[in-house]
Amino acid sequence: MRAIAILAALAMVAGLFLPWLNPETAGVRLVPWDLLKSLEPTVETAQKFVSESPVELLAFLATFVLAALFGLLAMVGAPSRLLAFLAGGGAVGFVAFGALKLKDKAAALGIPVPEPDKLADFARSIPEVFGLGAMAWGAGVPVLVLTALVGYGER
After folding, report:
1. pTM of the model
2. CA distance 80 to 116
């Protein structure tokens, strides 16, 4: 289980460097790393970024940091169930919060929102909209949550 959890953490971290939207459909190449690499690596820039960024963005970026930290600790033999839960659970909370927030805005703008009885149709459209980064991140999230809840087993 530990090896699978390490792969899940690596998938989440890899999502930082991969496109999150399908460029063919969205017409935009959204890569979270592009946002971060444009920042100057100074303390003042980091403080300004943290103070001016929305909490949602900071929570999203924290999932990458927590997944990387969990992966590193798991590789050296000291996996932390708390870090797995914070990385995976934080991502679940981020997605749930975003879905609830966007649902209201989408309805106000007249954008169709998938209904609970049509979630299978929505799931089939995911590869058309989302890129590899979002899928890698999304695949790692449930594995880390399960890792946190179930544990690693003994050797």
Report:
1. 0.81
2. 35
